[in-house]
Amino acid sequence: MRPRLVPELICTDLKRSCAFYCDVAGFAVRYAREEERFVLLEREGAQLMLEEPASASRLLPAGATLEPPYGRGMHLEIDVDDVGALHDATVRAGLEPLLPLEDRWYERADDAVLVRQFAVQDPDGYVLRFTEELEARRG
């Protein structure tokens, strides 16, 4: 089943971004269109598209100017099976988490969930918050 939301992130250096997402964050290339400088990445059902535009005309809105860090004002939450191992890989790669590894309860409509999480920026400044649900309780 195709995910209903697949973010496409504009990047300044596709090879550098792919190295981060594949070598550090554990994504795999599902397919690539090298002539378009585009890849679709996947990890445990989560998908991301990366594109290094050849010109500003490929940006939406057309001709937009991006300034680093990209993605200001939003972050992507990505649920993984072992957030501790991913955190360790991030630190081994020399990256400083924006949000240190923590366990936190979040209230929802009918229950609460305990998640282990941390956040890190990709090479273009997009904020990724990796989470793992540990426990849920009825509220």
Q: Report the radius of gyration as a whole number of Å.
A: 16 Å
Within the largest sheet, what's the order of strands?
1-4-3-2
Termini gap? 32 Å
Strand content: 35-45%
Largest sheet, in brief, is: 4 strands, mixed
Organism: Svornostia abyssi
InterPro entries: Bleomycin-R, Glyas_Bleomycin-R_OHBP_Dase, Glyas_Fos-R_dOase_dom, VOC_core
Protein name: Bleomycin resistance protein
Domain VOC: 2-133
Give a structural overview.
The chain has two helices and eight strands. By secondary structure, the chain is α/β, with parallel strands linked by helices. Strands 1-4-3-2 form a four-stranded mixed β-sheet, covered by helices on one side. A four-stranded mixed β-sheet has the order 5-8-7-6, with helices on one face. β2 and β3 form a beta hairpin.
